Structures
1.
Amino acid sequence: MAVSGFEGFEKRLELHFFGDDPETFPLGLRKIDFESIQQVLEAVQCTVVSAVGNSYFDAYVLSE
Amino acid sequence: SSLFVYPTKIIIKTCGTTQLLKSIDPMIHFAHHLGLTLCSCRYTRGSFIFPKSQPFPHSSFKDEVTYLEDTIPSNLCYRKASIMPSKSSSHSWHVFTANDGSHNHSHMPYDNDIFTIEICMTELDPILARKFFRRDGDGKTGDSAGKEMTELTGINEINPNALICDFAFDPCGYSMNGMDGDWYSTIHVTPEDGFSYASFECVGSINDDIVHALRKVVQIFRPGTMSISTTWNEYNNEMLTKMAKAVEPLGLKCRSCVMDQFPAEANVVFQTFTARRK
């Protein structure tokens, strides 16, 4: 174990979805509310420390 | 660590002893409520520096694959797991992919001329790594200290068009996400001597100036060891040569290059480099 408890090498997961409901688009997964995002991150053991978005996607910097 | 949320895609990249794969179930659940169904999954990682510290399901690649196999829906039936080796037994690239085979992924993960590169760097130049330590009592927030590091290190010059969201951890460490239209980039840094590490990841097209980005990244960190994993639909040897030639003048020599093919026509090429001084 590192002195700092830190492991550099990341794990990376990419998930793609499809949907037939045009009402879901164009936002799609971006419609997931922040509380639900936090629930996902809780399972991973991370929290959001900073966030930004543009017209295409949302980006979150996470703890760890 | 970073999370990117697109209308039909999420990318989540975490370090430390996080349990990344546990995000799959809740993500499928929340997406389902929006009428969205999982059609493709890709999991990648390098070799852990401290593998024994990793909690289940990250205790081994075998455990990770078993967990993925058990968690993702059965409609994602085209599956493949692979460990791509390098010349060093301690440095391999681990890949798991799954997709449903019935959707046209060509417009989703990778258009033919669009690629994703994942760069992992260790043994960073200690003088350069020092820039990722906070100063005692700097009176700054994580955001403002991060902004200062972005400018001080030249990270803002990798893609001058990108909107950058950066954060400096206390006492050290740094993360940033870049946004340039619909393209993301991300950097994570652990600067501590002895287990220093930095990563750079971005999406780009063959027409982009990837040479400029690669050179900037190498100049910012001066790693002793670096790996580049490139994922795209069409194998492009010219592109790989271009990437190797970009970093060679900066003292890095290509030591290994392996390719593997995955479902949905994705090709992954894993190149490793070490500093000539080694």
2.
Amino acid sequence: TTRTPAFLGLGINDKLLPTSTSQGDVIIGLIDTGVWPELKSFDDMGLDPVPSSWKGECEEGTNFKSSNCNRKLIGARFFCKGYEAILGPIDESTESKSPRDDDGHGTHTATTAAGSATTSANLFGYASGTARGMAPHARIAAYKACWLGGCFTSDILAAMEKAIDERVDILSMSIGGSISEYYRDTVAVGAFTAMKKGILVSCSAGNAGPDSGSLSNLAPWITTVGAGTIDRDFPAYVILGDGRNFTGASLYSGKPLPSKLLSLTYAGKASNMTSGSFCMTGSLNSEDVKGKIVVCDRGGNSRVQKGLVVRKAGGVGMILANTEAYGEELVADAHLIPAASLGLKGAEDIKKYISSGRKPTATIGFSGTELGVQPSPVVASFSSRGPNPLTPEILKPDLIAPGVNILAGWTGKVGPTGLDGDTRHVSFNIISGTSMSCPHLSGLAALVKASHPEWSPAAIKSALMTTAYTAYKNGKTIIDVATGLPSTPFDYGAGHVDPIAALDPGLVYDATVKDYVDFLCALNYSSDQIKHTTAEEYSCSSSKTYKLGDLNYPSFAVTLETTPENQDRKAMSTMKYTRTLTNVGRPATYKASVSTHTASLKVIVEPESLSFNTINEKKSFTVTVSADSMPSGTSSFAHLTWSDGKHTVTSPIAFTW
Amino acid sequence: KAENKHDQLERRTYIVHMDKSHMPASFEDHHEWYYSSLRSAADSAQMLYTYNSVIHGFSTRLTDEEATSLENQPGTLSLVPETRYELH
């Protein structure tokens, strides 16, 4: 990717960063749509021989040879038996029965995680610079389990098993499905075995935001990644006939609109269909849009598809209007006609202007790439939000990473919009989603793993979470673009990843397989359900009291008593949590502090100070929360920080009633 | 194509979790045992994958009746219907 390494503070010469040799020992497996191996981002120049631990290989198939692998792309496989069983044999004239990526998504995620540095990367001149993965010397193994018709769990599970057996270190999965109990959740089950074998599993949180409780990939042994913006925009301008000017976003690169103002219309008024405002295929009346710029509402179909619908009906430009659900979030697309996306406020103003009936006119202009945009990051509107709909006692997402307008490698099979009619071939594309934030985190986890090969997946996750930041340099909380207001741990989890800080966290909240089994016991899982989840025999002790909140997790989610309806009297409830910190730094004394903005909440940490004398020394503490009862649905937040003056080890605390 | 369509209507893909501790001593290899369990519940069903580490079991396509029969076989922990995941 371009820009995100700098945005994340990954300077080339930072002395904390692992060497290229130690990075080269880390293997990132991605379960996705495959890989386009000819890209320069998979160049293996300067890489050491493949680690001797590696058991994988490059599987041959349609337009894919074992020679497509090298010291960067060290493994490539495909899994299609489940897909073919449902949809019939793969039509090899349209889809490669091989690890080759016909979609682009898998190539984008792989290069984001660990692509080699490639100069002069850009998409039609946008976002130009040197593109590199987060761990540019780490190895990539691509497991194709996602096809044009989707990703089926039998194939995903087979891919996970292979990746685990072949000894990847990090497993990156930018996919999600419906929520189910952990023992019926294929990715959760596969990730448990991966965790047991020391593999960190990083998954996308989902793009169902900003609705609350919209997350996927919820298991506590998974690292669940939401998405934020970076300090880069692709501004486009919509100028109205009355002189007003609105800033939007676009990656359009073709012939500009004529310099004169053009007639402007709203798709909802140029269609006889009830959902005409979305510019669905065949919905626009040619006589109403011919020669005009058309305002289309976001949603219903793909954003770039709307431009084609407008063009087919005779329109010459398109304004993609955000609705309430998208707020002010601007997602740039490589439209095939002059087009720009606009935030909710601007979109509403333009619709009012059109309704005013004074022969509305407009034009659209494009001004390339803007850097240094502030504030950044902001939480992406689409990023799925907490609370955790399955286990409210575990806070999810775990953290956020860059996921908006990310430039990374692309397939040679389809153009940047992915539309059939898009014949443009590009080596890089700019796309958005928690799919993009997940491999950022996977690559950063690879850096931590390279620096600390002995750390468990839980320790790596803890390092990434407890060093994440929640405020800008001016002290103000990271904004949620969906509302324009300060975001909360339900939006960003522990905060935005800060990889350099994560390399030296001071302390970690480690967790063992037994801790996760205890968590399953706390869920009251039967022995069969535990066996499902863990693929092993474990039993819960009848003499032990298991508590969900006692999982040694780097964040806290406190569920409290609600005030009964029609009762004014507030009852006080008290909850107690135990956590254990492991020293991974020098001997030091850490002091606890809690920041909370709600007077009715009391948080007591005991002891208030912990001294560590040796490496890997463990110390436990308790957090006691007392709170008045509140109406159901109320939430509040705090942060617990342990600091020795050099390190800050911070955990979010989310309270829900 | 017609066969596929028929198959689609009749069968669903399941991920079958097996309890290896229930494998009868007469089987030397758990694959054999999985295969035998599947055969006794569903004559013509094919295994898509066998899973050895991530879970113990296999995936296959079964009719409702076959699924019920397999579920009742000793050593079968559960049948989880396949779901479709999406790119994020």
3.
Amino acid sequence: MSENDIEDAEIQINPATGLVTQITTNQRHLKLDQEFFYYKGFVGDNKKVTNRSSGAYIFRPTGEAVKVAEKAKFTLQKGFLVSEVHQQFNDWVSQIVRIYRNENYVEFDWLIGPIPTDDANGKEIITRYKTSLNSDSVFYTDSNGRELIKRVRNFRPTWKLKLQEPAAGNYYPVTSKILLRSGQDEFAVLTDRAQGGSSLSDGEIELMLHRECLHDDSFGVGEALVEKAFNKGLVARGSHYLVYGSTSNTNPDGRSVATQERVLAQNKLLSAWTFLSSTQGLSFSEYK
Amino acid sequence: RVDLNVLRGAMGVMQHHDAVTGTEKEHVAQDYTRILSQGLDECEIITNEALRQLSSTTDQQRVDPEPSVVLNFTTCRLLNVSQCEFTETQDTFVVTIYNPLSRLVTKFVRLPVQKSNYTVHDPNGDLIPSQLIPIAEPILKIPGRQSEAVLELVFQAKDISPLGFKSYFVQKSAEKVPTQEE
């Protein structure tokens, strides 16, 4: 899908699976697999640390992440200003992948919920962006909302680490950005809200989108994390903005990808305000 | 300042209690939502007044002796579920985009609307490109969504000055609605 403009982003979809296979920003192609998974939460009696349930305070998955669906039903909406792929993975996971004319990013507008409560464990839903970048166990998060902090998988800078929780132990707060670097290449995911995120394999970024934990973790809330609205489980909707480019000023607009990310983050996190007014029945010529 | 205090108080309470992370009981979270909503209501008074002052012409600037239209500004807080009673029910309306940043900004505006055709004029009176795009099926089914909107009207608010605003005139047109194939 392309609007044939130099600055436009592009995406490619596999028509057989409905999944994204490639994105293009800054006129650079990046092979990308994006899918949704969920972790099953640990269930315990909370009497010992090892029996602590996954809950509001504790992210404690049991086992590997489970893929939500192998394929997505999809429809294509192509237009002059915006083009979209509407993907439906199952009854409670869907997404719109979107590119705007003259904009140099790809938007993933995800919609999760109501999460089914058909098992004892609860579900913690993530999205995973898998690339071929060789990130060598390193990723970066802007955990304090300001500077980027270097994170190394299964590593702490001041002690020898033996992780008991391979997924949760590598999760970090993401205030607005998580990224990978490989040489001069940089792949960044900007979030519209604070989320937890990690890179559990080289070239991968994952972000936690929504959770339904059916057991309290005994840290004081005294309530399982099962929120409802309109007598149904909560639905969460949000966006990720993906940018790929060079860390030097060799991108088509002469800016580094970090500069582009900063401008994009300002545009999205401090977005222009929209106000509406009645024209009190006037036609355009009268109003003018 | 009085109009800002409710939201200030709400933010203070929520930051102190780590709200919206799920680490409060559900009915407390719902109460935070209520307090935040009240805060935003109060803030709307001050933004409305500020925009009215900024957008009104003074007597010296007026070349037209007719009284001008006084605009009241409102916001749509349910755009996250693609719902807005105002844009869905009005045949004509004005969209004002305010840029809170200290540099030029271009924004794609998305507004839920009912099935029809629309024209959009920019502040110079020029017709600008706009697009209607279907709202994705799962969004239409979000529990609690009460909306007849099945489309979103998209247009580009270009080059809004730092701390400035632009207003766009949106009008339903009588033309036939194109089918998906068209």
4.
Amino acid sequence: APYLTTEQMDMGVDWLSRFGYLPPADPVTGQLQTKEALTQAIKAMQRFGGLEETGVFDQATLGLMKTPRCSLPDMSELETAAGRRRR
Amino acid sequence: ALALQKKWTKRHLSWRVRTFPKESAVLGRETVRALMYYALKVWSDITPLNFHEVAGNKADIQIDFTKADHNDGYPFDGPGGTVAHAFFPGERFSAGDTHFDDDEAWTFRSPGGSSSNEWQLECPMVRFVALLWFGHAIGLAHTSAIESIMRPYYQGPVGDPLKYDLPYEDKVRVWQLYGVRDSVSHTARPDGVSHTDDPPVLMDLPENKSTVPPERDAPDRCTSHFDAVAQIRGEAFFFKGKYFWRLTRDKHLVSLRPTQIHRFWRGLPANLDSIDAVYERPGDHKIVFFKGVKYWLFKDNIVEEGYPRPISDFGLPMDGVDAVFVWLHNDKTYFFKDNHYWRYDDHLRNMDQGYPKDTTLWKGIPSQLDDAMRWSDGASYFFKGKEYWRLVGSDMEVEAGYPRPIGIDWLVCKDMQSDAPETRNNETDLQITGKHHTDHAENAYEVCSCTS
């Protein structure tokens, strides 16, 4: 896995949550996410973004996360679960 | 996703720009209205939807330029990041409303006469951004389809606002919602609202330099040996003399005409007539320019204070640099000079031990490179003269089939065509595909191609 700073990791998790790939953290465990959930979320983001599904925050993934984008979440299923405020 | 989508039950939709960009020197009110008109027209051209601009507060699609938390549950995050959003159709009061982050550097037709525009977000709105968000406003969700305008990420300019043709993917999705527009256009007005019949005119640009012919000393991209090549923010930059060309992430040339380095990269000395090498630093993503024994550090497109500094900061000898790139394989920075190379750790800001080494360890690449860069396909590219070499992944040997011509593979040159002087004046009328299209003149006004 590429070298990642804590800041990059936090940014990545925040990004995945914001755009619907990662469900909100379990209130019991605070901000912790399971490694499996994180990996699946990264893969889903990579699949949606047309990247290779590595399941890790590689350079291409971090690069795409820095790309200017729309505020709306990408994952409609999760958006539904969250109440779909927009619709 | 289609089952979840909502759509407008009516076919006549009113729109209004309620608030305008506050600090944009380029976007006047009339320009913004015109851009919105043409972005909506792209959708109404192929569906039975009809959009009418209105003056009142009851517009179906209210358009706002707003900042930070604007009380809709989706606060903006300043420059970069999220740039706009729109509410899907429905019964909500805010359904259809479209909000643009006023902290972004919204531009349309760069004052510099190129499409390179501002750094933070060079989003000529009608070319992409408004298209995407009006897609939401009429009920389309994001898609992962590469060819779709409804991908959530900014994809770069999409060309002439008057000639933009939606990708087939998007046509099919919007036809599934509203059907196909028949040959007879609807003319009925929505009741109780005023409207404008005539499209706004794109005319209030402070200085439309898009028709200015290229500078006489502008180099020919198809025959040039490049001074430097770099991947910056995922895009490719080819530097030659005082100019550079730019390619989007999906390797589309932004403009056939080069942009002057000084008009985009702010803070380089005015007398700097070329650069030797450029790279985006891993970690903090600052951009480093090399010329001779000096280097400049840029945060985005503005030089940092205290520069230039000597390249001895990197542990390099004072001989200058031919090439520099960051190898995706190990995230290390490699410097090349003549037939030697050095490996530098940008995270530790330290030159690795045991260098320089002989460039022959990189089998197949020439010495005295022009420059090198990594690309988003995971490969590394080395440039010299009119040719380039490709190394895949962690390989230190050139892939079979290389070198190949730079012009044909990267810069939309066909059989090494030349930008001869007699053809240059027509470049504003060339699409990136290289095909000619004629000047567009109708209704007594003229709109120039935005591809240049």
